[in-house]
Design goal:
Number of strands: 7
InterPro entries: CarD-like/TRCF_RID, CarD-like/TRCF_RID_sf, CarD-like_C, CarD-like_regulator, CarD_C
Shape: elongated
Order of helices and strands: EEEEHEHEHHHHEH
Organism: Brevundimonas subvibrioides (strain ATCC 15264 / DSM 4735 / LMG 14903 / NBRC 16000 / CB 81) (Caulobacter subvibrioides)
CATH architecture of the largest domain: Up-down Bundle
CATH class of the largest domain: Mainly Alpha
CATH topology of the largest domain: Methane Monooxygenase Hydroxylase, Chain G, domain 1
Number of domains: 2
Strand order of the largest sheet: 4-3-2-1-5
Protein name: Transcriptional regulator, CarD family
Largest sheet: 5 strands, antiparallel
Helix content: 40-55%
Radius of gyration: 19 Å
Distance between the termini: 41 Å
Length: 186
């Protein structure tokens, strides 16, 4: 057995993995992989009925992180109140960008997707793919806000809906596709 390293996460900690959202550290195990001992976090995602093993030494580079701080949650909620920014690019390109933001695990980036794809009752219907991305982003954001605020997911969805309904203006702002501003936003 190898000597235990100082671990960033403990068993029972709620963590965020970028591609899967909020999970819980169920265990820290030492596993034999290709003849080498490897210490891993065992992270369970109840909503996806999935277990993920992340090497403890690679957890940071893999994007495993603690829940968002109160400041980040506040910034994300205020992002929802802003005006939607929709680039004038083809939907397929925007969809890829939205998907990348959702999978980045960054709560503020996810909030931008929710804000940009949200439709008020007075606005036209969303396409199927828009609705899928919106619901994915809303679900991911609600789970992290719920875990960070120690509330259930339904209460978090209500909190997000309240922030969305407090938008300053319903009309989205169309932006000219600008590679430089996209690089700065990333």
């Amino acid at each position: 057995m190898t000597t235990k390293s100082v671990l960033e996460f403990k068993v029972g900690d709620a963590v965020v993995y970028p591609a899967h959202g909020v999970g819980k550290v169920a265990a820290v195990e030492v596993q034999e992989v290709a003849g080498m001992s490897l210490e891993v976090y065992v992270v369970t995602f109840d909503h996806e009925k999935m277990t993920l093993r992340v090497p403890t030494k690679k957890a940071k580079t893999a994007g495993l992180r603690s829940l968002a701080s109160e400041d980040v949650v506040t910034k994300a909620l205020s992002t929802l109140k802003g005006r939607a920014r929709i680039k004038r690019t083809m939907w397929s390109r925007r969809a890829q960008e939205y998907e990348a933001k959702i999978n980045s695990g960054d709560l503020v980036c996810i909030a931008e997707v929710v804000r940009d794809l949200h439709r008020a009752d007075s606005q036209p219907e969303q396409s199927y793919s828009e609705r899928q991305l919106y619901e994915s982003a809303l679900d991911r954001m609600a789970r992290e806000v719920a875990a960070a605020n120690r509330i259930d997911k339904d209460a978090a969805v209500q909190l997000l809906s309240k922030s969305l309904s407090a938008k300053k203006a319903n009309a989205p702002v169309a932006e000219v596709a600008d590679e430089d501003s996209e690089a700065e936003a990333a």
